[in-house]
Amino acid sequence: MNTHIRISGDTMKWRRGLIIAGIHLAIAVPLIVSELMPRYAVEKTHSLNQNSAPELQLVAFQESEQAVEFVPICEEWRSMSWQEKVLDSSELPATIASGWNSDCPAGWTTAGMIGIDIRHHARVQEIGSSAAFCLLIALQWLMFGGLPLIQPRRWWLEPGACNTASTLLVVALLAIGKLIEAMGYPELLAVIGLPAFAILLLIVFTWMVWLALLLWKAVNSCWKLAISTRKSPGDRATKL
Asked: How far is Cα 98 from Cα 79, in angstroms, rounded to an integer?
């Protein structure tokens, strides 16, 4: 079976990049909103309960007048929602660069630059981090989608196209799972969860393939440049 895969040229396909970026933004924005809105509702309810509850002052005995500061611990591992799993897989580079929805983002991420850390997690900061995440998603797919590294005869063999199609499929499975849960059949969620998890692994694999293709093309370009610079001027004149 001949798939006829060849390395793409350096011509930027803006229309393709805009279409793929639009598809990923159309997927990412509802997932981000559905991830953050329940959290805001819980915070609002907690704030109302605190305002209505009687004030209780706790006095701790100290031998010396020293301020006691409790530093929260950053959890490296925690359970993730399906929204996070989909976004972390389909938008892997943008997720790493943004530090979106991380309790302890690195200082070089956009979330870290905004000032989010284990102690500072204001709603305004989360909205700014989410907006930066969406911007990185758009730039990511404008570049990756507009400049494919290979042009296979079968479109789904190209990593960007395979990633986009798989993301649409896993989001459809996620919507079906939510519908099944709302109908009161939680025992059927395992039927949806296993294929969805397999598709998420496929999405991560597309990023690994894309990185391997990028490294291969970079090495190939450096090799061709080294060969061309080693040719003598006489050989070049004879070839012309």
From this structure: 19
CA-wise closest residue to 159 among 104, 212, 82 = 212
Tens place of pLDDT per residue across the chain (240 aa)? 444 455 454 567 889 999 999 999 999 999 999 988 877 666 666 555 555 555 544 444 455 555 555 555 665 566 788 899 999 999 999 999 999 988 888 889 999 999 888 777 788 888 999 999 999 999 999 999 988 888 888 988 999 999 999 999 999 998 888 888 888 877 777 788 889 999 999 999 999 999 999 999 889 888 888 888 876 555 555 555
Amino acid at 85: K
Please tell me the distance from the alpha carbon of residue 27 to that of residue 15, in angstroms, as a whole number: 19
